[in-house]
Amino acid sequence: MSMNHFDYIDQQILLQIREDARKPFSQIAENLKISNSLVHQRIKKLKQRGVIKKAEFVVDEKQIGFKTKSYVGIRLREARYAKQVVDGLKEIPEILECNYVSGHYAIFILIFAFDNHHLRKILYEQVHQIDGVAGTDSFICFDTNFRRQVSLNSLGKNISYD
Amino acid sequence: MSMNHFDYIDQQILLQIREDARKPFSQIAENLKISNSLVHQRIKKLKQRGVIKKAEFVVDEKQIGFKTKSYVGIRLREARYAKQVVDGLKEIPEILECNYVSGHYAIFILIFAFDNHHLRKILYEQVHQIDGVAGTDSFICFDTNFRRQVSLNSLGKNISYD
DNA sequence: GCTGAAACAAGTAGTGT
DNA sequence: ACACTACTTGTTTCAGC
Fold first, then answer.
1. Can you give the pTM of this predicted structure?
2. Which InterPro entries does UniProt cross-reference here (chains A, B) (predicted)?
């Protein structure tokens, strides 16, 4: 299948910058006992390959007032409305993620709202008004037990899991 | 309610570093026509307040082999098994997020697997084996239409939405 | 609470092996 | 593909407003 290939250096660099995007390259170089500029070159290539996209600061949603997190499954009146519903959902800034899914729902979204009342208003006054939406089911998150990034352990191996 | 207070500078800094965690502080200062060191001070305070947690590089899961993304709702045999089930789920590295939720399911998780076959194996051989799990429903993501961070427009205002 | 300059550290590019 | 050096740029701290 020969897709991307990652060696030990790539993997270690990813492990380090992923958790701290502002970690000095020179420090990474020191840890790995390689030159400063090699780190720079590798990261450049990882970007070119599309393995790393961007570095972002993680803002705590709760700290800026978004206390209610909820997943919401959306049922459509008919399947062919999918695209126009997605276009409508995109206009609602509280919706942070939107997926086409298999199973009970056609579309599955993630919403952050100020509180439950706010969530209800978004659903009733905005989502339900989009032409093609038949109904929604909400899965309000009482608590997020954990949240982490994808494992890098399988890199470079290539991968038998059965 | 007097929770956190954010002025224009805080908001602008957040907007800029959120999308590019490695943007030089000096450049931010220039954009806002404030001193280099004020940017530094403000970011330090935002960290202390817990508004920003860390800077992370975003790794493209598909590029490192995780082609199947799925949300999975978990039903419990009895509600009181919740905690021990979460402990079991935490041991499965392909599970990237785990929430207690309202509605049909007790627990709602996000899984990234190599492919559908791998996903099935994780569910059957790991998740379903955890004591307390009655069953699961999967919502496999065919496509992610969009994905973004929470809006910062409500900062500093304080907020009436009804 | 903010600025500005000075000391320090890191990022970048070019050259050679 | 990598390391070394020289150069440019950013970060951090602190005195002073």
1. 0.92
2. ArsR-like_HTH, AsnC-type_HTH_dom, Dimeric_a/b-barrel, Tscrpt_reg_AsnC-like, Tscrpt_reg_AsnC/Lrp_C, WH-like_DNA-bd_sf, WH_DNA-bd_sf
Q: Cα–Cα distances in Å, from B80 out to B42, B77, B135? A: 44, 9, 15
Query: Cα(A115)–Cα(A124) distance, rounded to whole angstroms?
Result: 14
List the domain boundaries for chain A: 3-48, 61-141
Measuring from the CA of residue B44 to each C1' atom, give the nucleotide at the shortest distance: D12
Q: Report the topology of domain B3-48.
A: Arc Repressor Mutant, subunit A (1.10.10)
> What's residue B136's pLDDT?
98
Q: Between residues 12 and 51 of chain B, which touch chain A (CB distance below 8 Å)?
A: 14, 17-22, 49-51
Chain A environment of B17 (Cβ under 8 Å): 57
Among all protein residues, pick the one whose CA is nearest to the C1' atom of D3.
A35
Does residue B147 have a pLDDT over 50? yes
If you count them, how many residues does chain A have?
A: 162
Fold type of domain A61-141: Alpha-Beta Plaits (3.30.70)
Cβ-Cβ contacts under 8 Å between A and B: the total is 231
Whether residues A146 and B98 touch (CB distance < 8 A) is answered with yes
The set of residues, in sequence order, having a beta carbon less than 8 Å from that of B113 and lying 6+ positions away, is: B66, B67, B68, B70, B94, B119, B122
Which amino acid residue lies closest to nucleotide D4, measuring CA to C1'? A35
Rg of chain A (C-alpha set): 21
Q: For residue B154, what pLDDT band results from cuts at 50, 70 and 90?
A: confident
